[in-house]
């Protein structure tokens, strides 16, 4: 039913009717209760004045009945207990996660410290191994140089030996020719002596002198051959010594090559261990990021906890205000029943 105008009393009456129905006394609800009359600004102004008056009366606890006070107390206690339970569970869960992660981070930091120490030791060992390898390579190069020099000396000795052998062969050939010539000469002399012994007596003396000269020459040549044989033996001994030196150098080279291969394998193993240590460092950084995230989550939870506590306080205050307003007319049993029902709905 439409009305000609509204005033504070009508707005107050409409507000109470809306509250009795268990609805929120908003501007639109009060205007509907007034029959869709009056401007919203006027209704809003009257509602604010009525609520200020009601809030002034809500501070008087004497207006509340004992059952309502107990109901409000139980509701507020339940809300606080539920809120505290949620907060305690979240706090315990967070504390347990932080404790677990802190323990794991401590273990990983210990592992990281040990790993860094091992890496430093391995780096030191690698440096020593590389230095030793460098020294051995220098020794190997020196040995290679000695081998090359020995081979060069061997080549020279072989050339000298070949030259000596050629000279020996040449002297033997000359000696053989001399023997053949002597034999031929003797045979000729013998034939000439048989045919004309008398005619050649003086020549025989000359020939004997020549023979002595040739014998001396042969003796000298034999002495040269003996000396050449001695030189040849000495060169053969030197060649054997050079060959033994070459074999020794080859054996030393093989040993150095084996040591080099062992050092290369050690270096590969050290590189694999360094790669594993780096992977563990990356995992530790990831865990640190997770801890930072958990710290951020803790801060958010603390903010949510504060909001929840504020909300609980606000709802408790709202219940107190609503119950005070509902019981301002304690003489009306129907109003008490409706107020109790409204509190239950809230």
Layout of helices and strands:
Blueprint: H1 8-20, H2 27-33, H3 40-58, H4 66-195, H5 201-326, H6 333-345
Helix pairs in contact: 1-2, 1-3, 2-3, 3-5, 4-5, 5-6
Structural class computed from helices and strand pairing: mainly alpha
Radius of gyration: 63 Å
Low-pLDDT segments: 331-346
- The number of distinct helices, counting runs of at least 4 residues, comes to 6
Return the domain count.
Answer: 2
Coarse shape: rod-shaped
Q: Quick one: how many beta strands?
A: 0
- The top-level CATH class of the largest domain is Mainly Alpha
CATH topology of the largest domain: Helix Hairpins
What this model shows, in words?
This protein is mostly helical. It has two domains: 1-53, no CATH class; 94-303, Orthogonal Bundle (Helix Hairpins), CATH 1.10.287. It is 89% helix and 0% strand. It is built from six helices and no strands. Helix 5 (201-326) packs antiparallel against helix 6 (333-345). The longest helix is centred in the middle third of the chain and has 130 residues, at 66-195. Residues 331-346 have low confidence and may be disordered.
């Amino acid at each position: 039913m439409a009305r000609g105008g509204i005033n504070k009393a009508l707005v107050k009456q409409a507000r109470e009717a809306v509250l009795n129905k268990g609805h929120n006394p908003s501007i639109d609800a009060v205007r509907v209760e007034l029959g869709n009359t009056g401007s919203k600004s006027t209704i809003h102004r009257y509602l604010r004045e009525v609520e200020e008056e009601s809030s002034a009366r809500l501070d008087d606890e004497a207006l509340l009945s004992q059952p309502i006070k107990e109901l409000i107390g139980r509701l507020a206690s339940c809300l606080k207990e539920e809120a505290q339970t949620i907060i305690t569970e979240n706090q315990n869960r967070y504390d347990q996660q932080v404790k677990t992660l802190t323990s794991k981070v401590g273990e990983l930091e210990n592992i990281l410290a040990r790993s860094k120490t091992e890496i430093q030791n391995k780096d030191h060992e690698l440096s020593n191994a590389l230095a030793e390898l460098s020294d051995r390579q220098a020794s190997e190069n020196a040995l290679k140089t000695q081998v090359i020099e020995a081979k060069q000396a061997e080549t020279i000795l072989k050339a000298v030996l070949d030259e000596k052998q050629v000279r020996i062969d040449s002297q033997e050939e000359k000696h053989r020719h001399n023997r053949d010539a002597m034999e031929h000469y003797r045979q000729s002399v013998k034939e000439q002596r048989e045919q004309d012994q008398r005619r050649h007596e003086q020549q025989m003396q000359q020939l004997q002198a020549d023979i002595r000269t040739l014998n001396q020459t042969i003796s000298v040549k034999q002495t040269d051959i003996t000396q050449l044989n001695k030189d040849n033996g000495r060169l053969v001994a030197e060649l054997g010594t050079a060959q033994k030196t070459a074999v020794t150098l080859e054996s030393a080279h093989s040993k150095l090559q084996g040591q080099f291969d062992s050092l290369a394998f050690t270096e590969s193993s050290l590189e694999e261990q360094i790669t594993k240590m780096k992977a563990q460092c990356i995992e530790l950084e990831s865990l640190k990021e997770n801890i930072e995230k958990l710290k951020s989550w803790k801060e958010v939870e603390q903010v949510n906890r504060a909001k929840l506590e504020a909300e609980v306080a606000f709802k408790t205050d709202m219940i107190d205000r609503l119950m005070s307003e509902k019981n301002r007319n304690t003489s009306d049993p129907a109003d008490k029943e409706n107020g109790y029902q409204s509190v239950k709905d809230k």
